[in-house]
Structure formats: structure tokens, C-alpha cells
Design a protein that fits this description.
Largest sheet: 7 strands, mixed
CATH class: Alpha Beta
CATH topology: Aminopeptidase
Order of helices and strands: EHEEEHEHEE
Structural class: alpha+beta
Number of domains: 1
């Protein structure tokens, strides 16, 4: 197989995939990191802030995500961290996030030609493996309850079926948003 997965760091940051809707690349998307994120945020500012976040977490011994390559082409991206790292979550007052969880803010394969090839599943497996020897017990995320694509709320355009098929459970539903959770196989507690 020509699929490879690398930990996200400053060296491969510029390889993040591009797509046709705002913000045009995962490297510009700061939706979860900025509570004031909007279409007026310059791409340069967003990219610098995103790179800073990745490098800061790496420096402190944390991973921030993974980048999937097909041969040498970047085709997929995932981002996750502690719940407290994503201030935007405070806007979702209907959902209670566990303090012993990480939040999966993005798992995205922009080009539909690379979907349904196991890339998303492999990225999710890499996250679980990365978290096995930590004190985190759960992975939590938010997705749309229906599957209608909306380029202006792309952060929720992740198929709920994918997550449910990969062990996530529905914790809550409010305003067409599902709060999902998956238990991490944690070796530290064994």
C-alpha cells in the first residue's frame, strides 16, 4: 500500500491538504483554536497561529495530529488535543465534555477519490495508539446528525456512520449536532 502516516509537526505543516472552500487548507483552519474565527481572519495570520500551536504542543511532548500521504501527496489530516486546548468548545454549552478526554477536532480527507480506502480508519487508529499510554480515557468529537454536506459548516461534515462503525457512541444530540465518545484502550490502567 502506498499510504503512509506521519505525526504532525512544524516540518510537515506546510504539506497539509488543500480544498476548495474557506479556509482552503487545514493549515489555515483555526476554528477550534480561535473563538473569534471568521472569514475576515487573514490566511497568513491563521497559518502562523496554527503552526505556533502545533510546535508548542510538540515542544511540550504532545502530539497534535497526523498527516496521511498517498505516495508523497498529502491526502488526509487529523487534529486532536486536550479539551481545554479548544476554546471554541465553550460555545457548545449543551454538551458536557469529560476532563479525561481528548477532543478530535478534525479528521478530514478533502479529495473524495481518497475516501473509503481506509485512510480515515488508519488515522483514527494512529490517534488511539498515540493515546494508549496516557491518562486519557476517551476520544470525543462533534458531527452533524444528518449527512447533508454544507461547505459553510464543513467542520461538521464528517459522516456519523464512520465514527459509529469505529466504536464511537452517541452521548447527546442538540440542534442537529451529535456529541460522540469512544473509549481508549488504555494500557496504563491495565
Amino acid at each position: 500500500m502506498r499510504l503512509t502516516i506521519q505525526k504532525l509537526n512544524g516540518a510537515i505543516f506546510r504539506d497539509l491538504p488543500n480544498f476548495k472552500y474557506f479556509p482552503f487548507s487545514c493549515k489555515y483552519c483555526t476554528f477550534w483554536e480561535f473563538t473569534f474565527f471568521d472569514n475576515n481572519t487573514s490566511l497568513e495570520d491563521a497559518e502562523q497561529y496554527k503552526q505556533y500551536c502545533i510546535e508548542l504542543l510538540n515542544k511540550n511532548g504532545y502530539n497534535y495530529g497526523f498527516l496521511a500521504f498517498w505516495d508523497k501527496e498529502p491526502i488526509g489530516y487529523t487534529q486532536y488535543s486536550q479539551i481545554s486546548y479548544f476554546p471554541r468548545l465553550t460555545h457548545f454549552v449543551s454538551f458536557q465534555f469529560s476532563s479525561d478526554s481528548i477532543f478530535l477536532s478534525c479528521l478530514y480527507i478533502p479529495n473524495k477519490d481518497y475516501r473509503r480506502l481506509g485512510v480515515g480508519k488508519k488515522l483514527l487508529e494512529m490517534i488511539q495508539k498515540d493515546l494508549e499510554n496516557t491518562n486519557f480515557k476517551f476520544i470525543e468529537t462533534l458531527v452533524k446528525a444528518n449527512d447533508q454536506e454544507d461547505p459553510f459548516s464543513d467542520w461538521l461534515n464528517r459522516p456519523k456512520e464512520f465514527f459509529l462503525e469505529n466504536g464511537f457512541q452517541i452521548i447527546n444530540e442538540k440542534d442537529n449536532v451529535l456529541h460522540l465518545r469512544k473509549e481508549i484502550a488504555n494500557r496504563m490502567s491495565l
